[in-house]
Amino acid sequence: LWKNLAIPFYQRMIRENIVYIIVFLAIVFYMIPITFISALTTLDNLKRILPFLKSVVDKKALKSILEAYLPQLALLVFLAFLPTILMILSKAEGIPSESHAVRASSGKYFYFIAFNVFLGVTSGGTLFESLKEVEKKPNSIITLLGNSLPPNATFFISFVALKFFVGYGLELTRLVPLVIYHIKKRFLCKTEAEVQEAWAPGGFGYATRVPNDMLIITIALCYSVIAPMILPFALVYFLVGWFVLRNQALNVYVPSYESNGRMWPHMHTRILAALFISQVTMIG
Question: Any coiled-coil ranges, and where (predicted)?
């Protein structure tokens, strides 16, 4: 990131603090649209808002599938727009290298999804309902977190299953990049070089892959005692991921930088954070 090399150190510190404040506010207040989407994507609300869908969603076979996967799918689509914003913010900090910016974006994304997707979905309702109790006794938040985990076990089992069924399926078929390529080719590309650039697979995407894997680790650790049924799903997720992503890394993606293994300490820190979250919830 050549343009960031000329930024003085004190400016980087100021930018870093500003970005941290923005990310913190985003983590805190992003729960509002996530809660709205979770409520909106229930079948009853969809039928009320879009009456013409009633005949479709009332079909027995389709209804069971939609009830199981629609909220999770809506959540995944909604979160798909977030990494780009976080990468822009990370580069705005003044970070001078691409690999460092990717790690910074990855860290922000992990804490975002850990608090908003995992803790938010798990305990959001409980915390809002018991807000007065939390204000009077802040220590009671641990108990609330522990009590709110079991009712959401089914949701997260479905979430993990959806991640490896749909996520790795899309990864192997590369349908999304194919659609994006044709859109770019049709409307944006003017020269042959631009067409080739649009067709290029790009890098491995550590900024999104690592946080999502860390989220699955967090979910598996927190629910390993309460709902052991989640462990086979998590195991399949990582086994399938090893085969799929190994193939993609060797045969599809083209790395644009080399960080000399600096991603591992970053991942290790997040695994420890996942362990800490699981221990706190187990105490409750």
Answer: none
Distance CA 272, CA 222 (A): 13
Q: How far apart are CA 168 and CA 237, in angstroms?
A: 9
CA distance 69 to 73: 6
Rounded Cα distance, 239 and 96, in Å: 35
CB-side neighbour CA atoms (13 Å) of 208:
14
Which tens digit of pLDDT belongs to each residue from 213-257? 999 999 999 888 888 899 999 999 999 999 999 999 899 998 888
Number of H helices, E strands in the chain: 18, 0
Say which amino acid occupies 32. I
Q: Do residues 105 and 97 make contact, with C-beta atoms less than 8 angstroms apart?
A: no
State how far the Cα of 112 lies from the Cα of 33, in Å rounded to an integer: 14
Q: How many domains does the chain have?
A: 1
